[in-house]
Design goal:
single chain, alpha+beta, 4-stranded mixed sheet, 28 helices
């Protein structure tokens, strides 16, 4: 007979004594259980004790989290969080440097636990730490030379404890003084400072900027881009990551009118070339967090284009009209201007109209009307002018080349530029906030100060080339744009390291090559429509689905490392989840860092029987996606979120590292529950495997026409004289 669901078998340790095996009744108050444990070891004052996990987390057991205790868990009897907080509060004020250092080290470790953090904060612990940072550093300034390692460690543990305590979201960031901000900023501004102090100081500044508008203004006054740049020129990738994170935070929270000014400062300080030299082209791999911060910087930089993208052209604005005149002048400069007399006005208008038609504008009389649609608005005109001025030969060649073709075969430069700009903005998601999970940065955009304009210049030449290869007419305009989009997207997926490499990739993706790729993909995914093939597909589909199901379950058995996302992304913890080989239990547990190899089975202490799972929900239906906060509103995070609901009110919440893992896990969990696998990945796998299986079975019928209907049964012969009688 199985044990009652409310009884959990655990081991409990106490220093200097043999561990106890005991059964915990989850219906009993936690205080009664602690009293029972204390009585077993003859310990008085049970209210001064608590239970905590004996693993590396050391988290306290509370009434809120006690349901997470599973059979076989090892617990430890220890001082209660209130007592521990009180003792540490006193110890960190000790006059002994060694005692103070040891207390701060313990505080940095314990502060990760929200239960302890709450008790320490209740004692006004945050204020004590900020005072120690503000005044304590001066107090020990004289000792710094003779006790430098001790001083550095002490400050490092103080800042670590502060970061961990603030990370729980119990205390508002708005409560901190200017003196504290100045002190933290001073650590960042020092040329020679301990790495751990610098790292935590940068983390604190980033959190201040992201969590408080008032603090953003104060931090922006204390920290300049010029003071942050030297930290990017070092060799420590973690410091570089934190530095770019601070720059991104300042960029993100800056008022709209200040962002362009900040971008100009970044350009003056050559931030792009420094990142390219010391980060992207450094002789080491870029980790996920650095890739994310580079992606955020890329998005924020491109978002500066949003204002021009959403600005309509004012046909009455002479300065804007002059840009169109400049485009005409550069293209047709060789043509003589008519004399400025009373009889030439009509002639001039006629010539301008003819030239604007050659330039490919839709509205030949007033081309300004072509730029009233947003997006791309004035951004398209900016790109055209940049191309005309910085790639003048290519611009003139394209315009004159097309103006000499028949009307129906000319590639309209104006219309093409407007649509291409709009398409590039869609590809690069200009105007959208950066995702919390994306790492998709492109090195080539860090190789030029005007990378978007150069990107456009390459793509407009590609469009003209593709138009000629397709022998397109004006009716084929949308088809050409679709091909160009495919060419650009395919080239971008290879992550070219420079714009020249991107151009080279596009050279290899000619229209003929795109047709070959499409034909190959069409053959690989061909949906044979004849009745015999459809019947064959129907017959073998269950077998293929079973194969996909087994692959999904095998991947769940291997397991996946998930992030625990919070407001300060780089401090996220990891956790791992996998399915037992018999497909009956999900094992999961926290990890200190992302695993490099196989995760040991005994490190995953928590278990969830598959039989207890009630449902799997995704996206907005997930409990952790219904909470308030900017992160929860992020579209890409929503698309990667899923939750397992079990028991009455319990859930296990996931945010997949990418779309592929999301599909694997939702498919696998649905398969365990006997439900259909509905993901895009399953549909693609099913199409691919069905197509391959059918082609294999039809190899012997190559070049043989398969009829839509079976051949008719012939009439019976008039006699059977042809039958040989063996008798």
């Amino acid at each position: 007979m199985p044990p009652p669901a409310d009884i959990v078998k655990v081991a409990i340790e106490w220093p200097g004594a043999y561990p106890k095996l005991m059964e915990i009744d989850q219906k009993k108050p936690l205080s009664a259980i602690i009293k029972e444990v204390c009585d077993g070891w003859s310990l008085a004052n049970h209210e001064y004790f608590a239970l905590q996990h004996a693993d590396s987390s050391n988290f306290y057991i509370t009434e809120k989290n006690r349901n997470e205790i599973k059979n076989g868990t090892i617990l430890r009897l220890t001082t209660s969080p209130a007592q521990n907080a009180q003792q540490l509060h006193e110890r960190i004020q000790s006059s002994s440097m060694d005692a103070k250092l040891e207390a701060l080290k313990d505080l940095a470790s314990l502060s990760r636990d929200v239960t302890f953090a709450q008790e320490f904060i209740n004692l006004d612990g945050i204020s004590l730490l900020t005072q120690m940072v503000e005044s304590g550093t001066e107090r020990y300034q004289k000792l710094q030379k003779i006790m430098k390692p001790c001083f550095g460690d002490m400050l490092s543990f103080t800042l670590t404890a502060f970061v961990e305590l603030m990370d729980h979201g119990i205390v508002s960031w708005d409560t901190f003084s200017v003196a504290f901000i100045k002190k933290i900023a001073s650590f960042v501004n020092k040329s020679a400072i301990d790495i751990s102090i610098l790292q935590r100081s940068l983390a604190i500044l980033e959190s201040m900027v992201l969590n408080s508008h008032d603090l953003y203004q104060k931090v922006a006054q204390e920290i300049t881009i010029g003071q942050l740049i030297p930290h990017l020129q070092g060799s420590d990738q973690e410091i570089q990551t934190y530095t770019i994170a601070v720059i991104n935070a300042l960029f993100l929270k800056a008022p709209d009118e200040r962002r362009q000014e900040m971008a100009n400062i970044l350009a003056q300080k050559q931030l792009r070339s420094i990142i390219l030299t010391h980060v992207i082209r450094a002789q080491r791999a870029i980790n996920n967090e650095m890739a994310h911060q580079l992606y955020v910087l890329q998005v924020l930089t491109f978002n500066l284009l949003e204002d021009r993208m959403m600005t309509k052209m004012d046909p009455q604005d002479q300065a804007q009209r002059d840009i169109i005149f400049e485009l005409r002048r550069i293209a047709f400069d060789a043509e003589s201007e008519p004399n400025n007399n009373s009889g030439s006005m009509e002639k001039r208008k006629s010539m301008y109209t003819r030239d604007y038609k050659k330039l490919g504008f839709i509205n030949h009389v007033n081309p300004a009307m072509d730029f009233t649609q947003t997006p791309p608005g004035m951004l398209a005109l900016d790109n055209m002018l940049y191309f005309a001025k910085h790639h003048q030969d290519a611009y003139i060649r394209i315009v004159l080349e097309n103006s000499s073709r028949e009307d129906k075969h000319e590639c309209p430069f104006g219309r093409s530029s407007i649509e291409l700009t709009k398409m590039l903005c869609e590809i690069l998601k200009v105007g959208e906030l950066p995702s919390e999970t994306c790492n998709d940065f492109h090195p080539m955009f860090f190789t030029h100060d005007r990378s978007f304009e150069e990107f456009f210049c390459i793509c407009i030449q590609l469009l003209n080339k593709t138009w000629k290869e397709m022998r397109a007419t004006s009716e084929d305009f949308n088809k050409v744009m679709q091909v160009v989009k495919e060419q650009v997207m395919r080239a971008l997926t290879t992550k070219p390291s420079s714009l020249d490499q991107f151009k080279s990739k596009l050279q290899n993706l000619s229209y003929t090559e795109i047709l070959k790729i499409r034909q190959s993909e069409r053959m690989n995914q061909e949906d044979f429509q004849s009745r015999p093939i459809l019947e064959l597909k129907e017959k073998i589909q269950p077998e293929i689905l079973e194969l996909i199901k087994q692959q999904r379950l095998n991947r769940l058995v291997e397991g996946t490392c998930f992030r625990k996302l919070n407001s300060r992304r780089r401090q996220d913890k990891f956790w791992y989840c996998r399915l037992s080989p018999n497909h009956k239990v999900l094992h999961y547990g926290d990890l200190e860092e992302s695993p490099q190899g196989e995760v040991p089975h005994d490190s995953l202490q928590d278990k969830l029987p598959v039989a207890d799972i009630k449902a799997v929900v995704t996206g907005k239906d997930c409990p952790h996606m219904k909470e308030k906060g900017a992160l929860k509103q992020n579209k890409e995070v929503l698309e990667l979120a899923f939750s397992i609901l079990y028991d009455s009110n319990c859930q296990l919440n996931f945010i997949a590292p990418d779309k592929h893992e999301y599909c694997i896990w939702t498919d696998g969990l649905n398969a365990l529950l006997g439900k259909d696998m509905m993901s895009d990945l399953t549909r693609n796998d099913l199409d691919t495997l069905l197509s391959m299986e059918i082609k294999l079975r039809l190899l012997d019928l190559e070049n043989i026409q398969i009829p839509d209907a079976p051949p008719p049964i012939p009439k019976e012969p008039s006699n059977y004289d042809f039958v040989y009688d063996c008798n």
